[in-house]
Amino acid sequence: MDRRNFVRFVLAGSSVAVLAPRLAVAGIPEQGMAGRVYYTADNPGRWSAKVKTHVPLIQIQKSEGTATVEIITPHEMKGYEHYIVKHVLFDKKFEFLGEKIFDPTKDASPVSSFPLDRYTGTLYALSVCNLHDSWLNSAEV
Ligand SMILES: [Fe+2]
Asked: Residue 78 Cα, ligand 1 centroid: separation in angstroms?
């Protein structure tokens, strides 16, 4: 390796070392969704004023050993102008469990419900706004 390539190699390694800690966001699991293209209540990025209306609320209802999860985004459904596009539910390994796609001409509020049977552990709910990106929250079952 000549000196020029050695310098490039060292600079490239330094860049990775500097950037890598910025990719790890506190509270977000290491495994997961490609690109981590979502916001959270603790990490709202450019949408800090949108937390209350975009972070999905997760309610677990248990009955006789089975559970149901309800996801609610306290967000308006203003036709196609501004609405929640969908909810997506993931298990503790970010494996897809289900999704609900909303029709803003028919769905008055962005609420979805999924059966969990006997699932235990962390659940992740993603809520997608057509203007303000995707928001993630989690709950324990
Ligand atoms: Fe929005």
From this structure: 10
60 Cα: distance to centroid of ligand 1 (angstroms): 24
Do residues 89 and 97 make contact, with C-beta atoms less than 8 angstroms apart? yes
pTM, to two decimals: 0.77
- Yes or no: domain 31-140 corresponds to CATH 3.10.520.10: no
Task: State the distance from the centre of ligand 1 to the C-alpha of 106, rounded, in angstroms.
Answer: 18
Domain ranges for the chain: 31-140
Question: For all residues of the chain together, what is the average pLDDT?
Answer: 83
Q: Got the DSSP string for 78-101?
A: BGGGB-EEEEEEE-TT--EEEEEE
Contact 73, 54 (CB under 8 A): yes
